[in-house]
Sequence to fold (428 residues):
Amino acid sequence: MTFENTLEFAKKLDSQDQLHKYQDEFIFPQVNGKKVIYFTGNSLGLQPKRTKAYVDEVMNDWANLAVEGHFYSEKPWWDYHERFANPLSKIVGALPSEVTVMNTLTVNLHLLMVTFYRPTKTRYKIICEEKAFPSDQYMFQSQVHFHGYNPEDALIEIKRREGEHNIRLEDVLAKIEEVGDELALVLIGGVNYYTGQVFDMKTITAAGHRAGAYVGWDLAHAAGNVKLELHDWNVDFAAWCSYKYMNSGPGNASGCFINEKHHNNSELPRFAGWWGHNKERRFKMEQTFDPVHGADGWQISNLPILSLAPYLASVELFDEIGMDVILQKRDTITSYLEFILQEIDKEVDSSFEIITPSNPLERASQLSVLLHGEGRSLFDYLMKSGVITDWREPNVIRLAPVPLYTSFEDMYEFGQILKAGILNKANL
Fold:
């Protein structure tokens, strides 16, 4: 497609966009009496309007039924989480029995490492990405310490080559082969939070397995944003948060994937709890743990229904639309944003360096942009002008044009505001 940096062209794209109507499904903050251009769905998604009804339903059931709501509400609480199995399985490419919801992201990654990080004297090393999200780094360090190893020895970071912003696939594969028989686990973020790079999860998973290691993925920035085929890729486990691209609300519940090949393996350890026990016998209060078959068997506590309600509203919205439609718009609107940035770059003295891969197969709904010659004052100008974006030191802005609620007109308007901020920076 040949793009144009005009309002008319942007409106034309919106008129052809089958997701354009879904903007009205979300609540936008207001700045200067006008809805914002929202680029931070990679940190916290906007609130769907339908969410309130789902939460109110739980509140009303609690008020009217109290404890009986566990069994007699319209969506009984004791099996509320089971409503996620089918829609979530489509989002991440899994069997319904391979997905569940529980806890929050880093908690779930810790719990999954109980099962899948089983170091021995000779096989104890973990391969991860350089500059992973800090929570992952802390998790790796604490897990390695817990097992009595030194992180400087046990943690192997895949590094970027000198002068490059992204990690090369061949370097990941070479490092896996190099570590070889010492490798216990590969655990990488499916999408790097800083650069927006999407890793080749299928190829890396296969390489990890050839080395005899388990392979898991932190899908915080991938779930609801990237085409995932976790079952077909033979991924061992994965976890993701729900509050970014899936718009479930701040700090909300996490999702988990555990490949069905592990469901019947009684030798794999797990931290057990009441809610992971045999559903049909749970209320018999038995002393011996008998796990639910499937990913639900990794649950520990009864679930926070008030947190799950917004998440259910979101996954049902995704199910209504379908990931293929979302991903098609994602690619087009991200390319249009890239074009707008390149056009504005020609009209100003500053220069923009997009550090997210240009290959559409290696990126999703995020462009990370180095603003050479610009500082924090430009970010402040954007925020005051109704563009909600994310600043990372020293001078990177992360822009996430989420397909469900950003428009092509938003991309055009952002370009005009960005240009005005740079041209008028003496007055900022």
In short: The longest helix spans residues 323-347.
